[in-house]
Amino acid sequence: MPTTPLNAHLVTGGLSAHAPVLSPDGRWTVHTVLRADDDGPPTSSLMFVASDGTGTPRPLLADGFDAHTPRGHPDSRHVHFLSEHTDTGERGTTRLHRIDVDGSGHRILTGPEVRVVDHLPLPGARTTALVIAEPDTRDPHAPRVWGRDEPRHRLALLHDDALEPLPVLDLGERHVLEMAAHPDGTALAVITRPSPERDPVHPRWELCLVDPRDGSVKEPIELGWESHSPVWWHDGRHRHLAHLAMDPGPDGGQAVFDLCVDRPGATHDNLTRGMDRCPVELTQVDQGPPLALFAHGLDTEIHRLDPITGRFTLLRRAPGLLRELTASASGERVAAIVDGPHRPGEVHAGPAEGPFTRLTRLRPELDRYRWGRRERLSYRAEDGLALDGILVTPVGADPDEGPFPLVTWVHGGPYGRHADHFHLSPYVPAQWLAHFGYATFLPNPRGGEGRGRAFAEHVVGALGAGEWSDIDQGIDLLVARGVADPERLGIGGWSHGGTMAAWAVGRTDRFAAAIVGAGVSDWGMLAATGEYGAAEAGLSGSVGWEGPGPHPHDAVGPISHASRIRTPVLILHGEQDTNVPLGQAVYLHRALRHFGGENEFVTYPGEGHGLARRSNRIDMLDRTRAWFDRHLRPRG
Fold first, then answer.
1. Model pLDDT, residue 161
2. Which helix (H) or strand (E) covers residue 570, if one does?
3. Fewer beta carbons within 10 angstroms: which end of the chain, N or C?
4. What is the rounded CA–CA span in Å between residue 408 and residue 514?
5. Three-state secondary structure along 289-334?
């Protein structure tokens, strides 16, 4: 065991795996490894490893050559990726690169005049679809007209690795978000929206079908809210394109929608209607039906679409969080990042139905530490709704050794969840707090993902009602079990978790301390000023411009109950947050000051809805611990 205690520098540093790519023949994977050791952008490297776990990961490029966004070539012999580095090591525009899987044949495929945002090698031809960024030629001091002259991301085709200006395909003024290639190379599905900035009042997503052979574009097709993750598949007679979108938009749960592109006027079919789990990712399989990741309770499942019935069938269920699923051309083998119960995310690979082999070991420095014991919780809400969550007890202690000071940490969303994985981050600091004597309750109240659309829709227009009751009842159960000390209860969270912490302390005095991280205090103001305006209005029921109040959002806003807050509150917020603008934190801070409530207000300059600078993540962890130490530790 280590002689020094766990510290925030260790928690926020080290290596992490991202963007795994399984080769079409299923024999190897390539993934990006990020190193976060200072306040600058993380350095990245491209690692190659056999998918059967033989051998050790090896870099495809020399150290210090930042590379990201890998894509496997259909021939399984090359990897395309993006980097700002030139072959001489100098930095410049983000360009498209190619390298052989043995580390030879490194080439830069685009010129310095084009900044590449995304790329997709197309099957059946020496062609690569590119998303390129228009240069921003606007005068930073000139007046700005909202929605005009914003540089878009455009679609272009690179033929035969030609280092020359690329022809941009005509998609009108649409901004390109994501693309998927049909396995026969005859069609490219491109998801777009009207502008780079999300329209907070009337957001719109559209599908453009492009023939990469001649660049022709069919009439755009309107898609649902938050459409993403397009995949192609074939039912034996017709081509289909499936994708993820919210059902119903703008709020509710995520669903898989499908469009038969060969039928004029075909409608979008919901392939997950009635399911008691929630799709989180779709993965294209070039020689078969697509795969999907589903959140189901505390676990993650891999499903395959049945092309005959149009329904998803379970292949395997795994504890924890699987993400970034990638498949071989046949779909028989897959790779993914697995955030398991005992360690942070690592690359795993194996048959789609399991078992998996772990291919990486990125955080061996954490093996020296003991961790808090985890317990999967299952209970019923007052109205009988099935609920779950996670309890993490202090390092070296069992639940029956309580009562402990208990911190309830609420997940974001509300459409989110706490899966059964290794909770060691500034945003979910359960294992961090376990090292300092705290138990942590991670509840999954109604409104989250993992139990189907009906479960998610419970909170639409009714924020804070049953959702808060679910959390409060879970705390009661832990107090009754003797796990939680009722005199030393804390609550906190980030984003919607911060919102629920602010809501809770306006409803009860049972908490000795609260942390409101990037939370909402006034839903009407958020709908009017946040980047997800229309979605926030759907959740809260109104904006405020409907006419003289009171308005539905007033009843569900924490600020409406600020006069009742007696709990000490730590408010944390990024100054440049456009999701939940800083004014939300200022409003709560001023209300607490007005009513004499104890609070501390901390802002992070230059930060958005998440904290990019490592020093700020370290500060957040240390402040979280210090705040609870101040208010939850035994007197004397």
1. 66
2. strand 569-574
3. C
4. 9
5. CCEEEEEECCEEEEEEEECCCCEEEEEEEEECEEEEEEECCCCCEE
Residue spans per domain, the chain? 370-522+557-632, 523-556
**Among 364, 297, 354, CA closest to 325:** 354
When pLDDT is averaged across residues 124-153 and rounded to a whole number, the result is 87
- Between residues 73 and 606, the one the model is more confident about: 606
- How far apart are the C-alpha atoms of 395 and 440, rounded to whole Å? 11
Reference 344, options 252, 432, 283, 469; nearest CA is 432
For the cut 50, the answer to whether the pLDDT of residue 292 exceeds it is yes
CA 613 from centre of chain: 18
Task: Indicate the pairing of strand 513-517 with strand 484-494.
Answer: parallel
Question: What pLDDT is stored for residue 258 in this prediction?
Answer: 97
pTM over 0.90: yes
pLDDT for 157-167, tens place per residue? 998 766 555 67
Give, to the nearest 10 degrees, the angle between helix 496-505 and helix 466-480: 70
The residues, any chain, with a CB within 8 Å of residue 194's CB and separated by 6 or more, are: 173, 174, 175, 204
pLDDT of residue 252: 86
**Dist. CA 300–CA 509, nearest whole Å:** 36
CA atoms within 13 A on the CB side of 564: 14
Q: Distance (Å, rounded) from C-alpha 347 to C-alpha 361?
A: 8
Short-list 291, 286, 338, CA closest to 312: 291
pLDDT of residue 214: 86
- pLDDT of residue 78 exceeding 50, the answer is yes
Task: For residue 164, count other CB atoms closer than 10 A to its CB.
Answer: 11
Q: How many CB atoms are closer than 10 A to CB 309? A: 9
Quote the CA–CA distance of 522 and 558 in Å, as a whole number: 7
Give me the CATH code for the 370-522+557-632 domain, please.
3.40.50.1820
632 close to 438: Cβ distance less than 8 angstroms: yes
Enumerate the β-bridge partners of residue 259. 241
* Number of CB atoms found within 10 A of residue 35's CB: 14
**Which pLDDT does position 124 carry in this prediction?**
77
- Report yes or no: 626 and 619 within 8 Å, Cβ to Cβ: no
H or E element in which residue 409 lies: strand 404-410
Which among 76, 125, 75, 121 is positioned nearest to 96, based on CA atoms? 121
Query: Distance between CA atoms of 583 and 589, rounded to whole angstroms?
Result: 10
Mean pLDDT of 540-557: 92
The predicted-structure confidence for 485-518, as pLDDT tens digits, reads as follows 999 999 999 999 999 999 999 999 999 999 999 9
Q: Tabulate helix, strand, coil % of the chain (nearest 5).
A: 15, 35, 45
Q: Which token pair is 578?
A: 């456009």
Question: Residue 588, Cβ neighbours under 10 Å: how many?
Answer: 28
DSSP codes, 325-388 = EEE-SSSSEEEEEEE-SSSS-EEEEEETTS--EE-----GGGGGS--PPEEEEEEE-TT--EEE
- Give the pair of three-digit tokens for residue 554: 């007033």
Residue 85 is encoded by which pair of tokens? 């580095």
Please give the pLDDT value at position 636. Answer: 37
Return d(Cα 196, Cα 194) in angstroms, integer: 7
Residue 634's pLDDT band (cuts 50, 70, 90): low
Query: Residues 234, 238, 244, 247: is their CA dihedral positive or negative?
Result: negative
